[in-house]
C-alpha cells in the first residue's frame, strides 16, 4: 500500500510517501519539505503565533493534497516537540483539523523514542544484540536501550539542538565561553540519564539517528547521502571533538557552506554537536553507527504491524505498550492526545 507520513517537527514539516507492505522494506517514493521553524515562533506566553499557525495550516493542506495526488491510501500525520510544548497546542490542532481535514496526532517524547527504536531494530536486525540509540531533534533528545523491538529504557529530554541554540548560543558565532558553559552543563544534565539507560545493560551496538547526526557524520568524513542508505556511516567521539573546535568558531553562514549542512540546520549544528558529544560521553560510547531509519519509518512499521492485529497506527485499545511509570502507566494513545496540555 502507498502511505504518506506527515511529520510536523520543530524545524521542518516533512511529507514522506512510501510504498509499504507488512514483512517488506518500505520504499520511499517522494519527499517534500518546508521550513517553518515552529519552535522559534512562540510568543512570550508559549503560544504558537497566529502567523505561524496560518503557515502551518497552509502547509498541512498543501502536503495533504500532494499525498492524495501521489495515490496515498492513508496519511499518517503527527507533530512532535514544538506543537507538544505550545501552550495553545489544542487550539492549533483543532484549527488544522477544521481547515484541512487532517488530524495531527501529538506524539509524546517517550513515544518518539520507542518508535525510533523500532525502526533501528528492524534496520540492524536481531544479530545486533543490545542496542542503545541517540536521537537529536530540534526540541528534544531521545535515548533508549533494549534487546527487543520494544526498548527496556526510553527517555526524552528537553535538550534539542534548536532549543539549546536559542537558550545558550544566541551569538553568531557562539562565544567560546558560552560553548564551554553549555558543554559543562550538558555533562551534568546527562549524567543521571546516561546511568539510567546503561542500567539495562551495556550495548553491543551504539546507534544514532536524526538529521543532526547525519550532518555531523558527513562533516567528519562519512559518505554523502548520494552514496545510498546502505553505506556504513559512523561518527567517532574523537572526530566529533575536533569538529566542535572547528565549527564553533564559524558563523552560521560559513557553516551553511560546508557539505552536508543545510542553511536551515547551520545555526543549530554547534549545539547539536555538543549534545551528541555529551550523549556519547554519558553512554560511554566512542563510536556510533548512523541509521538511515528513524521516527517516520518507525511509524510506518508500527502501522503495518497494527494492521495485522487491528489496532491503530501508534497503538490501540488492546495494545499492551504503555508509557509512564510502573505504578501509573498511561496508554500511548492517551499520551499522544494529552501531550502539550
UniProtKB/TrEMBL annotation:
This enzyme's EC code(s): 3.6.1.11
Top-rank taxon: Bacteria
Region of interest (Disordered), ranges: 312-341
Biased composition regions of type Polar residues, renumbered to the chain: 331-341
Keywords, alphabetical: Hydrolase
Catalytic activity: [phosphate](n) + H2O = [phosphate](n-1) + phosphate + H(+)
Pfam short name (any one): Ppx-GppA
Gene Ontology MF annotations: exopolyphosphatase activity
Keyword Membrane attributed: no
Enzyme class at the top of the EC tree: hydrolase
CDD domains: ASKHA_NBD_MtPPX1-like
InterPro entries: ATPase_NBD (IPR043129), GppA/Ppx_hydrolase (IPR050273), Ppx_GppA_N (IPR003695)
Boundaries of every Ppx/GppA phosphatase N-terminal domain copy: 17-307
Keyword Membrane: no
Gene3D superfamilies: 3.30.420.40, Exopolyphosphatase. Domain 2 (3.30.420.150)
Family: Belongs to the GppA/Ppx family.
PANTHER family: EXOPOLYPHOSPHATASE, RETROGRADE REGULATION PROTEIN 2
Record-given protein name: Exopolyphosphatase 1
Organism for this UniProt entry: Mycolicibacterium holsaticum
Amino acid at each position: 500500500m502507498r502511505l504518506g507520513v506527515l511529520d510536523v517537527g520543530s524545524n521542518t514539516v516533512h511529507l514522506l510517501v512510501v510504498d509499504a507492505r507488512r514483512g517488506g522494506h518500505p520504499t520511499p517514493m517522494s519527499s517534500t519539505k518546508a521550513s517553518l521553524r515552529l519552535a522559534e515562533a512562540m510568543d512570550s506566553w508559549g503560544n504558537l503565533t497566529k502567523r505561524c499557525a496560518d503557515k502551518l495550516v497552509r502547509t498541512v493542506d498543501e502536503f495533504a493534497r500532494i499525498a492524495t495526488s501521489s495515490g496515498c491510501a492513508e496519511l499518517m500525520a503527527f507533530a512532535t516537540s514544538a506543537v507538544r510544548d505550545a501552550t495553545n497546542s489544542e487550539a492549533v490542532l483543532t484549527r488544522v483539523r477544521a481547515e484541512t481535514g487532517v488530524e495531527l496526532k501529538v506524539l509524546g517524547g517517550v513515544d518518539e523514542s520507542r518508535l525510533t527504536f523500532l525502526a533501528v531494530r528492524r534496520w540492524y536486525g536481531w544479530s545486533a544484540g543490545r542496542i542503545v540509540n541517540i536521537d537529536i531533534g530540534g526540541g528534544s533528545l531521545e535515548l533508549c536501550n533494549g534487546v527487543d523491538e520494544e526498548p527496556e529504557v526510553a527517555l526524552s529530554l528537553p535538550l534539542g539542538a534548536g532549543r539549546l541554540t536559542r537558550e545558550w548560543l544566541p551569538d553568531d558565532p557562539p562565544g567560546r565561553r558560552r560553548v564551554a558553559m553549555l558543554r559543562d552543563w550538558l555533562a551534568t544534565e546527562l549524567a543521571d540519564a546516561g546511568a539510567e539507560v546503561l542500567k539495562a545493560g551495556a550495548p553491543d551496538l551504539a546507534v544514532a539517528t536524526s538529521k543532526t547526526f547525519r550532518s555531523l557524520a558527513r562533516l567528519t568524513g562519512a559518505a554523502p547521502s548520494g552514496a545510498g542508505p546502505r553505506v556504513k556511516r559512523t561518527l567517532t567521539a574523537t572526530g566529533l571533538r575536533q569538529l566542535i573546535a572547528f565549527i564553533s568558531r564559524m558563523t552560521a553562514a560559513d557553516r551553511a557552506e560546508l557539505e552536508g549542512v543545510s542553511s536551515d540546520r547551520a545555526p543549530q549544528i554547534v549545539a547539536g554537536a555538543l549534545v551528541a558529544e555529551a550523549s556519547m560521553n554519558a553512554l560511554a560510547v566512542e563510536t556510533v553507527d548512523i541509521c538511515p531509519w528513524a521516527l517516520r519509518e518507525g511509524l510506518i512499521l508500527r502501522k503495518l504491524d497494527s494492521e495485522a492485529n487491528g489496532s491503530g497506527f501508534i497503538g490501540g485499545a488492546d495494545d499492551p505498550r504503555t508509557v509512564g511509570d510502573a505504578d501509573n502507566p498511561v496508554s500511548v494513545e492517551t499520551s499522544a492526545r494529552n501531550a502539550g496540555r
